[in-house]
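User: What would this chain look like folded?
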Amino acid sequence: KETKTEEILNNNAQAKVNSDVTVTFTRTPNTYWYGNFVDDFGNVSGYSDAEKNRHKITNSNTLSVKLLKNEIGQTGGAICDIEIQNATEYILKYKIKFQDGFQWKKGGKLPGLGGGQVYAGGEDTSVGDGWSFRPVWHFYSGVNNNQPYFAPYAYYVDQPGTYGDEFGKKFTIQDNAWYNIWIRIKMNTGT
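Assistant: Here's the prediction, encoded as structure tokens.
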């Protein structure tokens, strides 16, 4: 039954490819269903049944995502793709807060942007047919005065290492504080 619903929603969303979208999550507090996701973001793929049961709209018009302990990727977090128009510049803005008592472990990736072959997981970028950029958070004992931190995380042609380039930047995170994430990607000419 759920698959049939998703197929109908996917067919209806095919024409909606985002160029400029603002989502405020001003819905009745409840589970953030797949249909809500499509209504808000358009052409969505990769949003699993397991994820939707951990996504809720709160009384403060906030999307709350529960991350599962000792799980990675879609199994314990949230992953989806939203189709966007080809452009020479992209801007993504959102706010994020880690609640009091969040159990900081190694790290995780936050929402970001990608184009062409959207690289991740140490994939070889040398072909130059795509890119991705998203913030990450890390927590390692003995690093950054034992404080969690944000860092940029970019995949692009000629990047210096195997995994996303963090450009040597660290931004310390405090529990229960809102952070404004502002990402601007400007394409070069490729020449």
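The mean pLDDT is 83. If you want, I can go into more detail on any region.
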